[in-house]
Amino acid sequence: MKRFHVHLHVADLAQSIGFYAKLFGAEPTRHESDYAKWMLEDPPVNFAISTRGQGTGIDHLGIQTDNPDDLAELKARAEAADMAILDEGATTCCYARSEKHWVTDPQGIAWEHFHTLGNIPVFREGGDAANACCTPSPAEVAQAVSATDSADSSCCTPAPAAAAAAAAAAACCPPTPRGKPIGIAVKSNTGCC
Questions:
Q1: What span, in angstroms and rounded, lies between the C-alpha atoms of 120 and 153?
Q2: Is the dihedral of CA 23, 27, 29, 30 positive or negative?
Q3: Which of 63, 155, 164, 168 is 20 to 30 A from 190, alpha carbon to alpha carbon?
Q4: Measured between alpha carbons, how far is 123 from 95 in angstroms, rounded to an integer?
Q5: CA distance readout (Å), 66 to 69, 71, 102, 113, 115
Q6: What is the mean pLDDT of each run of 10 residues along the chain (193 residues)?
Q7: Nearest one of 135, 134, 97, 101 to 116, comparing CA atoms
Q8: Taking the chain, what is the end-to-end CA distance rounded to the nearest angstrom?
């Protein structure tokens, strides 16, 4: 089974735990001083919140697998789609030991593909664990790909010019609010793109 993963940064952990516990009808399955996680079955979601980020909002999205074969399948899909991949291998983060790799979508949102191997008692082991954040920035993913490009010229990561062209195309139709005023911007159907 695969489980969708969402990790949000929140300003007030206790307030957010209260909100999400009511929203999901369940208490977190893991609760630490800076982190909480729900392992929901219907729908299957690994939903985590923490106070470790820069500001509030989505930190990253992901897919958690129950076995290494599913993780290998996700990695093969990313490779077949010519996505830049940051392969961390076996690592520790978010109070867990996992095997993982990262990709970044065209908007710069990090996607984590991981298989959890076990729990650990700290947020992250080694290095600057007290201040560590697990999510790589798009620049870190690109840097890892650049290092791979230098060592292996067969990498198919889009050239910077292609990325710039895609950004320019996206900029021609900036999202505009419509519908109920709930703060969600959507693209208009003006046909400019």
A1: 38
A2: positive
A3: 164
A4: 4
A5: 9, 8, 17, 11, 6
A6: 93 96 96 95 93 85 93 90 82 77 88 81 58 54 47 34 38 37 36 35
A7: 97
A8: 37
Domains and CATH numbers, the chain: 2-151 (3.10.180.10)
Question: And the tokens for 121?
Answer: 């008692």
- Return the pLDDT at 138: 54
- Residue pointed to by tokens 């005023």: 181
**pTM of the shown model:** 0.61
According to DSSP, the β-strands at 44-50 and 57-65 are unpaired
Question: Which runs of E-coded beta strand occur in the chain?
Answer: 2-9, 30-32, 35-41, 44-50, 57-65, 86-93, 96-104, 110-119, 176-177, 185-186
Hey, how many other C-beta atoms are within 10 angstroms of the C-beta on 73?
Answer: 14
